[in-house]
Write a structure and sequence with these properties.
Radius of gyration: 18 Å
CATH architecture: 2-Layer Sandwich
Strand content: 15-25%
Helix content: 25-40%
Shape: globular
Number of strands: 5
Largest sheet: 5 strands, antiparallel
Order of helices and strands: HEHEEHEEH
Distance between the termini: 32 Å
Strand order of the largest sheet: 2-3-1-5-4
Length: about 180
């Protein structure tokens, strides 16, 4: 079992029950999935950029990414419908917890001038999104192999928020899991 999953079950759930007064431990919000997305706009000019992004995303997440395509044509960007413009991975279960554990304990501290994550990344449903400027902060990526640096968005989807305090409960859940938020 993943280390972060065990920590969630043994420590976080009882703390959340105590803090928010849930009557049942199953009512505690939990992480449903993590979506890692790399938008590669330059893939229109250079096909190798998309292939590199796919390879790096597979190394980072341990899962093969799918290619995302443009939904509609935009003349200003020379973009046609169904052009490949990025890639994404949806992580669930054990892989999700292992990825989050590596992200929180290894990757985020490696970011230069890191002062914590912004607490404003929550949406109205309590999901959290953060952006990473370069893929080279992940230890799985060998810097000598990187031809193009590429950023990514990581969305943590949290389910089980039933009360009106979704953002507050989600933030507390992620804080108890060890996510470093700015104050």
């Amino acid at each position: 079992m993943a280390r972060l999953l065990e920590f969630y079950k043994d420590t976080v759930v009882p703390e959340m029950v105590k803090r928010f007064g849930y009557k049942n431990p199953m009512a505690v919000p939990r992480i449903q999935k993590v979506v890692v997305n790399m938008g590669v706009g330059k893939a229109l000019e250079n096909r190798k950029r998309l292939e590199d992004a796919q390879r790096h995303l597979a190394l980072i997440t341990g899962q093969k990414p799918i290619v995302t395509k443009a939904r509609k044509s935009v003349a200003g960007f020379n973009l046609r419908k169904d052009n490949p413009i990025g890639c994404k991975v949806t992580l669930r279960g054990k892989r999700m917890y292992e990825f989050l554990d590596r992200l929180i304990s290894v990757t985020l501290p490696r970011i230069k001038d890191f002062r914590g994550l912004s607490p404003r990344g929550f949406d109205e449903r309590g999901n959290y999104t953060l952006g990473i400027a370069e893929q080279i902060v992940f230890p799985e990526i060998n810097i000598e192999d990187v031809e193009f640096t590429q950023g990514m968005d990581i969305t943590i989807v949290i389910s089980g928020n039933t009360s009106g305090k979704k953002k507050e409960e989600s933030k507390e859940l992620l804080r108890l899991l060890g996510t470093p938020f700015r104050d």
